[in-house]
């Protein structure tokens, strides 16, 4: 008699995006003549860099000839890509890593989900709040999150609030935590930590023998000099941090699927009897057992991101999205709203006008401006009163949305008007 | 203080392939003038079908234009591929499945490894012996296998011996098991179950509320009419079986990465308090949380396998490998050896000449014939006394290897000669 993993049964429904979809669908049915502008999407819209296209076409053609055919590749990824990553993502920032510390994957989501397997069930997890739901759900699935309260909070998870009040800088926990998820530039808030602010977390991990799972998927959007691109810019992080990277938002690889995870040789966790165990060989074993490497075609495409043409083309695309972000930041500010993020990130985090909840503000934007965002409360309790917008849309949509906002303004907004 | 998952520390080293590599390297260093023929490789060598190449080139070019760009796809896979699978892999064999029962992935290894997450740790696992190591290792990692004895056997795993003595047909277990891994056509033995033999297992699962994880990665090699291509050809299997498929050996996708898993809506497992839970939504949730879909390019390539040209080209490649298998079967038989498999499978399972262990036979082939195989004992205790060969090599290598065997014969083989 096969028994199910009952932790799965505790998972909450993925209410947020289905509820957004339901409301949008209902609005469209009632107002078929209105053109909605979707600024809530988390997916890229620009085409791939031409350098990647050409590299992938070449790679496909190689597979058409027995002499240049590639079968199983290394589970850890091809050397050609690992070398390009080491040189451009790390050496150029003064960070020395070895090839065996890089693991190419089919994306950050897979790695962030699968990394939970390396740890015992009773590790205490801390997450920033609001948060990318995968960190929580993947820990619920293995029983590490405890039970969900009526408020949706998990009994064994430590929530680190990030709001306008604390400048979106999470405070160090006042009790033991073992695994800390940090995502900077942050999804959903679009905010960052400075080098000094991130150093506090690395020092905390060093002092408390905690482990940081650092999600740097939005690194390519950083523009300010004081914002670290990698946690390994902070001394000591190579002992306490695993970093997850993605080409999804860097080079438009959301549909092509490629990312990588850095597990430095020095990163350890403890056994129950107090021995230190290096996590690098464990992650290697996990990947060799349950993963067969990333598509050769994809890896050749990712390698092309690091060529001079590839880098120039990626910069152009990122600049396009950042200009979208700037237009939206300015537009909402001119309309009197408080806006966070959007400078080192494709995400903007709007404070709802006085007294409005996230969903009320969502409804207001939908009905009054015909603009679709994502309610911040869907990312966690500290997201209440905020709305997430992204810069991944078309330029003309951003401009049109700002024009609507200029025209209508938020003077009519607020609880009383709804 | 982060604590490690100590089950990982119990994993045995992957001794088999590293030891083969070590011996081959030592031989080559000592005999640099000898050309070794490698018949142990489990990777394909023929190029991809031209239909797949063209489809993937088109898909890559689509990503170069914002109007035809594809970002995140459905985590479950694109409808175009799911429809082709349903029609050609199932409907044509009289099996009706719905699109929501198919989950496209980056390969069978990922799915087989990740499926273990759906079940409680204390399920009892049965595997055929010899076996593909991933089934065992992925259960070791989550603590389901118990502890390894000095003989390498896991205390909580039920081993179902498959040898020449029982015709490689595993006997039903005489005690409770919850999860049964079956792989047919089998890796490593190359043998199959007839419809009648597989029916016994489906009936067992129905009677005992067990679940079958059916690995059909080598289905494309089946030539005999009485061998089922899918477990769902057996009535009732849709209640008790999850089937995993791969395009790796069908169409040479080992480096492109695509497979799929069938989780019928009717397949259930139990909660501790006796409720039945459908596994389809659980696997869906697992994939949506920890996986972001398979590359669009790859899925377009896989779709092309099912076009008339694609099917013809796949048949040609399979025919090439099967002719290799036939040549090797006949060559070894003429040399007086007992050979299993190779008819419905790319694998041949050679019985070592009287009295030789797997490693002794491996050494004999390496030193006398300069042919490299894979020792059967590396796949489990019931593999002792056997050697695995594969048909994935070049035709001229198969012919040359058989010529060497004809020339030298096995008269000098046997324990006394070593």
Automatic annotation (TrEMBL), chains A, B:
<feature type="binding site">
    <location>
        <position position="292"/>
    </location>
    <ligand>
        <name>pyridoxal 5'-phosphate</name>
    </ligand>
</feature>
<keyword id="KW-0808">Transferase</keyword>
<feature type="binding site">
    <location>
        <begin position="246"/>
        <end position="248"/>
    </location>
    <ligand>
        <name>pyridoxal 5'-phosphate</name>
    </ligand>
</feature>
<dbReference type="GO" id="GO:0010285">
    <property type="term" value="F:L,L-diaminopimelate aminotransferase activity"/>
</dbReference>
<dbReference type="InterPro" id="IPR015422">
    <property type="entry name" value="PyrdxlP-dep_Trfase_small"/>
</dbReference>
<feature type="binding site">
    <location>
        <position position="187"/>
    </location>
    <ligand>
        <name>substrate</name>
    </ligand>
</feature>
<feature type="modified residue" description="N6-(pyridoxal phosphate)lysine">
    <location>
        <position position="249"/>
    </location>
</feature>
<feature type="binding site">
    <location>
        <position position="132"/>
    </location>
    <ligand>
        <name>substrate</name>
    </ligand>
</feature>
<dbReference type="Pfam" id="PF00155">
    <property type="entry name" value="Aminotran_1_2"/>
</dbReference>
<feature type="binding site">
    <location>
        <position position="132"/>
    </location>
    <ligand>
        <name>pyridoxal 5'-phosphate</name>
    </ligand>
</feature>
<feature type="binding site">
    <location>
        <position position="15"/>
    </location>
    <ligand>
        <name>substrate</name>
    </ligand>
</feature>
<dbReference type="InterPro" id="IPR004839">
    <property type="entry name" value="Aminotransferase_I/II_large"/>
</dbReference>
<dbReference type="GO" id="GO:0033362">
    <property type="term" value="P:lysine biosynthetic process via diaminopimelate, diaminopimelate-aminotransferase pathway"/>
</dbReference>
<feature type="binding site">
    <location>
        <position position="388"/>
    </location>
    <ligand>
        <name>substrate</name>
    </ligand>
</feature>
<protein>
    <recommendedName>
        <fullName>LL-diaminopimelate aminotransferase</fullName>
        <ecNumber>2.6.1.83</ecNumber>
    </recommendedName>
</protein>
<comment type="pathway">
    <text>Amino-acid biosynthesis; L-lysine biosynthesis via DAP pathway; LL-2,6-diaminopimelate from (S)-tetrahydrodipicolinate (aminotransferase route): step 1/1.</text>
</comment>
<feature type="binding site">
    <location>
        <position position="187"/>
    </location>
    <ligand>
        <name>pyridoxal 5'-phosphate</name>
    </ligand>
</feature>
<dbReference type="InterPro" id="IPR015421">
    <property type="entry name" value="PyrdxlP-dep_Trfase_major"/>
</dbReference>
<dbReference type="InterPro" id="IPR015424">
    <property type="entry name" value="PyrdxlP-dep_Trfase"/>
</dbReference>
<comment type="subunit">
    <text>Homodimer.</text>
</comment>
<comment type="function">
    <text>Involved in the synthesis of meso-diaminopimelate (m-DAP or DL-DAP), required for both lysine and peptidoglycan biosynthesis. Catalyzes the direct conversion of tetrahydrodipicolinate to LL-diaminopimelate.</text>
</comment>
<feature type="binding site">
    <location>
        <position position="72"/>
    </location>
    <ligand>
        <name>pyridoxal 5'-phosphate</name>
    </ligand>
</feature>
<feature type="binding site">
    <location>
        <position position="218"/>
    </location>
    <ligand>
        <name>pyridoxal 5'-phosphate</name>
    </ligand>
</feature>
<feature type="binding site">
    <location>
        <position position="109"/>
    </location>
    <ligand>
        <name>substrate</name>
    </ligand>
</feature>
<feature type="domain" description="Aminotransferase class I/classII large">
    <location>
        <begin position="36"/>
        <end position="405"/>
    </location>
</feature>
<feature type="binding site">
    <location>
        <position position="42"/>
    </location>
    <ligand>
        <name>substrate</name>
    </ligand>
</feature>
<feature type="binding site">
    <location>
        <position position="257"/>
    </location>
    <ligand>
        <name>pyridoxal 5'-phosphate</name>
    </ligand>
</feature>
<dbReference type="GO" id="GO:0030170">
    <property type="term" value="F:pyridoxal phosphate binding"/>
</dbReference>
<dbReference type="InterPro" id="IPR019942">
    <property type="entry name" value="DapL/ALD1"/>
</dbReference>
<comment type="similarity">
    <text>Belongs to the class-I pyridoxal-phosphate-dependent aminotransferase family. LL-diaminopimelate aminotransferase subfamily.</text>
</comment>
<keyword id="KW-0663">Pyridoxal phosphate</keyword>
<feature type="binding site">
    <location>
        <begin position="108"/>
        <end position="109"/>
    </location>
    <ligand>
        <name>pyridoxal 5'-phosphate</name>
    </ligand>
</feature>
<feature type="binding site">
    <location>
        <position position="292"/>
    </location>
    <ligand>
        <name>substrate</name>
    </ligand>
</feature>
<keyword id="KW-0032">Aminotransferase</keyword>
